[in-house]
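A quick aside before the break. I want you to see a complete sequence-to-structure record at least once, exactly as it would be stored in a machine-readable document. Don't worry about memorizing anything.
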Amino acid sequence: MSMIAGTIIYVVDDKTYFLVADESADSSFFAVKMHRHDTDTALGSILHGLKADLGIDPNNLRLGELAAWHTKRGDTAEDLISLYTFTVVDPSLLNHQRIEMAGMHFKWAEGLVDLLKHVDVSGVTQLD
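That is the input. The structure line, written in C-alpha cells, reads:
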C-alpha cells in the first residue's frame, strides 16, 4: 500500500486557491491509499478518491503537474509521496458544502506557504 496525494488549483480574482485539509495548525493535501496488489494506479486512486470522498467529477478536472510532497515537512525520501495537481474546468460545479463536510476546503495560497515549500517539483515536468 502506498499513499498518493492530490490537490485542485483554481484562480479567482487573481488569487490562487488550493484544495487542502486543515489539521490543527497545519494544512495538508488530500491523500488516498493505493493498493498495488489490487492493480490500482496512482492516478486512478486519486481520481477515485476525489469522486467518492469529495463528490468531485473527474470530468471537471484537468491534470496539471506531478510533484512530490514531504508529508512530514522533512527533506528526505522517507516522507515523500506523489502529488497530483489538477485545475478545475468550471469552479461553479464544485459542491463546496460536500467538500467541507469531508474536512477539505479551498484555501488561498498566501496562507499555505509552509505547506507549499515542502512540495518538490525538481524531478518532474508539467503534463500537457
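Two observations worth writing down. The mean pLDDT is 87. The two ends are 28 Å apart (CA to CA). We'll return to this after the break.
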